[in-house]
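Dear colleagues,

As part of the handover before I leave the project, I'm documenting each prediction I ran so the next person doesn't have to rerun anything. This entry is a single chain, and its sequence is reproduced below.
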Amino acid sequence: MEAKQSLRIAMVGRPNTGKSTLFNQLTGMNQKVSNYPGVTMERTSGLTKLAPGQLAEIIDLPGIYSLHPSSADEAVVMDSLLNVHEEGEVDVVIGVADGTNLKTCLFVFSQVLDLGIPAVLVITMADDMAHRGLVLDHAALGESLGCEVLIVNARTGEGMEAIQPAIIRAKASPHAPFFQPGGIHLQWLAALQEGDEYIYKTWLRSLSQPAHEAKIRESGRGPKRLRADEAIQRYRQVNRWLGSFLTSYPEQDRRFSTKVDRLLVHPLWGSVVLFGLLFVIFQALFYGSEGPMVAIDEMMTSLSQSINAKLPGGFFTHMITHGLMPGITGVLMFVPQIAMLFGFIALLEESGYMSRVVFMMDRFMRPFGLSGKSVVPMISGTACAIPAILSTRNMEDGRERWLAIAVTPFITCSARIPVYALIIGLVIPDMALMGINLRGLVLFGLYFLGFAAALAAAALLNRWKRSQVKVKVPDFLLEMPEYRWPQPRNVGMMIWRQTSSFVKEAGKIIVAISVILWFAASFGPDHAADFTQDRVSVPIEESYIGIAGQFIEPVMRPLGYDWKISVAILSSFVAREVFVGTMATLYSVGDEGIESIHATLASQINPETGEAFFSLPMGISLLLFYAFAMQCMSTLVVVARESRSWTLALTQFVLMSLFAYVVAWAAFVALS
């Protein structure tokens, strides 16, 4: 019998309550990643089996501190619960609460109850409760709340079997609203002028609306005061219940986490540990992924050669081996880095250390419009911008995520290194300056320029965005969870979700563009009919991309570039490192080894000056152009995919290219 999907369930709770772990236990591999309507924030949903033949969709909503929307994630939660975008009514809410922090968790859950949606409260961290000597009479608490209360250990699965039956019972048993204080509730209509959907929804459930409206007219209280009064009365009720139903043994406390935090959040030693950890992550992304990436490259090259040998020569074979296969290879080669990066992020989040990272780096990043969470994508960008941009999914604040996506491509990535190595070896003398190798110093300077440009761009964009739209910056509220051992299941689920999402969503666009660029590099207007078995491509200078390079040569000439360098720049849009191979082809080097290319390029003479064509001014100009330009097709696609806006991606590409052009021109003129 085919299972039918009958219920829509939303999971709501504060951050660090074990909500994602619970979600993974309930849904397993039956998950999909999408975006909430109108925003770039990621939404994860999945299917769970409630009973034989009955499936339910579960939506893992972002962690929140209140249902009064003061940030993007809180607004998303309210929109989902109120069905603002008409995606479907929520049938049941699973409220998730950390058993070691019940007071604040019950505050949020009490707001959920007032929306009138059937609910079940699931209290997680049962093992931590036992360790800290906390005993809860959950049955009595459930009677007071008017809904079922369950205690589970989501990491081990203990108590999980009771959740699905409780969901079915909750749907059939409406509960009474939580919040019925005298006086305050009668004045909530005043807040309607502020557009607060939560207050509106709660007010609609009142049985005495005319009386409320009359008393509000006589009241001088504003929405902020009403919210404060509401919070006070909610906490009073929560405290009364916890005083009756929760028994605590104070001798068992958070001593372990407290002792570890003395080191890990220390202003000096905490920073040392953090940068040491980031160094390890960077090394792993840069070097640890090299083996798998080389293996994938060799495997795909071997497969391409096998296809080329077995299929008859001609247009379609050439398209497969030189257009389609390189595109697929370009997608698969990013998988090791993406998997490793999200594995590290999952470990940091699962262990509780990510909150400490945000706390320590927040003060430094705030002047640039960013928070401590921006450190991970910016450091990861030194390996590759693609997994770095994908890691911004970890940011709840949509404004900050937009900034991070916009500036991360400035960071010097590993794909720039072959270009830097070629140009630095060609124009920078191999000498020491105060005991420091000059070439190494130039390479370090390029990395520094990348970080400086990213931070400066973030500050400017943040100021511009504030001038265009009144941006309400959410208060910095951070809760330090206890340290816990990461669960391999949760780490694996995050790696699988993010890598599969990249391959399926961004991968198909990258492959399509790769085929288009192959066509542009293989054919030209005078050879449109050369789709024969003997001739499937033309000399690159006669191809569409070669003609385009010659067409833009007058534009690139002020930077010191000729048409060959222009063609190499256009070709490297597929991947920056293609610049080296294209230069080898255009100058007939025959061997793409760096020494052979150096020797050939160094012998080139500028016919206008009679001096070396690859001079110091031209070399510095080219280095700066690649330092600031977004010469990466895959990055462009991923920016469009993650921002849900090709307009943003193309605008970013144009602005970065213009900035790179101006800086490269200024350097060439100043040094000439």
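Residues 35-40, 181-195, 203-213 have pLDDT under 50 and may be disordered. The two ends are 78 Å apart (CA to CA).

All the best with the project,
I.
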